[in-house]
Amino acid sequence: MCCGRGGDTAAKDVAKRLNQELGWNVNTTYTLIKRCIKKGAIERTEPGFICHALIDKVAVQQAETDELINKVYDGVADKLFAALLGRKKLSAQQIEKLKEIVGDLE
Q1: Residue 48 region, left (φ>0) first, then alpha (ψ -120 to 50), else beta?
Q2: Which letter, b or e, does each residue of 25-59 get, where b requires 16 or more Cβ atoms within 10 Å of its Cβ?
Q3: Region of residue 74 (left: phi > 0; alpha: psi -120 to 50; beta: else)
Q4: Phi, psi of 6 (to 5 degrees)
Q5: What is the pLDDT of residues 74-104, one digit of tens each?
Q6: Which of 40, 43, 47, 64, by CA, is between 20 and 30 Å from 8?
Q7: Contact call for residues 39 and 45 (beta carbons, < 8 A)
Q8: What span, in angstroms and rounded, lies between the C-alpha atoms of 75 and 42?
Q9: What is the pTM of this model?
């Protein structure tokens, strides 16, 4: 996303970017931002309706991954892993990196 100082972004810049990338209109974007504020994910500051994320990227990634595994893969992480690996031929270096990651988890 287009970020200003410290990762803070003006709502108008978020709306502009989502319009360009997804075709969303301004009202849709502002409605989503307001819902995120209400849920405690974003804080609004003034002047300029600046949005500040209250949840860090890693926490969001973890929550979204958990939701994906639960919804699409019946709560079984190895099904997701197998699906990801089956989509693209991996290089020997990528395979070694994955082995290291799995080894670190054991």
Answers
A1: left
A2: eeeebbeebeebeeeeebeeeeeebbbebeeeeee
A3: left
A4: 60, 20
A5: 999 888 888 888 877 888 898 888 888 888 8
A6: 64
A7: no
A8: 28
A9: 0.58
